[in-house]
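pinned: reference chain
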Amino acid sequence: MSDTTTVSLTAAPSATPEVFTLDSLVSNGSLLSDLSTSELVSFELEDVVIPARSSVANVTVDLDYKAGLDNTQFRSVLPIADFVRDSLTNSQNPDDFYEVINNNVATSLFSNSSFNLSSVLDSVSVKLDVAPNSSIPFAFSDTVTVTPDGTTDQLVSFELKDVVIPARSSVANVTVDLDYKAGLDNTQFRSVLPIADFVRDSLTNSQNPDDFYEVINNNVATSLFSNSSFNLSSVLDSVSVKLDVAPNSSIPFAFSDTVTVTPDGTTDQLVSFELKDVVIPARSSVANVTVDLDYKAGLDNTQFRSVLPIADFVRDSLTNSQNPDDFYEVINKNVAEQTFSDLGLSSVLDSLTITLGVAPNAGIPFAFTDTVTVTSNGITQSNGDHLLALNSTTNGI
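pinned: its structure tokens
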């Protein structure tokens, strides 16, 4: 049984000239007086001019309200939106990174006495999504989160399109996330251009055809973090490099690999792939199947598994299902358990997750998903946003 219920309202621009979303989270209690609500308000301003960088950005603002406020304490988003837009369009210093500009906007918004946001918010976040331009020729985003004690966290993300990976005779879109330490000053942010060049060059210099994508990406991410010219360990909590690889001759389905490195040198790796239009005879249906392999931290390059036999095992297990009385939940649970145990994945994975995305059909006339996560300690399962308890018995649809 879920401990919370979330209701989300999304409003298109109207008299309020921005996309606006309101999420309400209500916690279950044994008495009405035990109920508490948390609310997250989000809105987006499109094509905001940033003169300091001769560019425009889509700007998303998230207002995370404290739990248990009364109805008089919520703030109008219109003056907040005006403040953010005006602060960005008043930026003029061409030497300021986007990180500096956004940091100044978010901290000045939170400290503005006319809004007094610190009394009603757990945090405010401002995200700049900047299209490729003359100064940064690739998609780039910067998100600043400020809390009432004045602490700032910053996440920078950028994407490099169609990077060649000679070792695998393929190309990939590459996303790099730089998670900055809390409380840095404006002099400590790094230029993304040399970091982007380093990542691209490292991938295009890969030559060993026996290396899995996991090995190639692990080498790139760890060498980036340890590079003394960037000294990223002094300013970042982590760096992540994600390869999104289109189907190709060696892996004929969509595939991604994400490596996250922390200052102590620990690496975590998440592999994800998707199988399209897998037949499930037991339900006379087809599903898109997403498989996530969450590797244990600190594995060496010899311990990663080829995804091809894993994909074959999952597909075959689903297409061999025949019992028309089995719910999708039962089928998926059985497949996930068998994959985790029969392929010996418990020695290298923290978890295996399989999600069935089932199109509307005669049995269930609407889009339906079921997700099973298996760990060495047990199983969790959910349908959409409904989470079933660990090792629970599913009632099914």
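why pinned: The CA atoms of residues 282 and 387 lie 24 Å apart. Helices lie at 77-89, 98-111, 192-204, 213-226, 307-319, 328-342.
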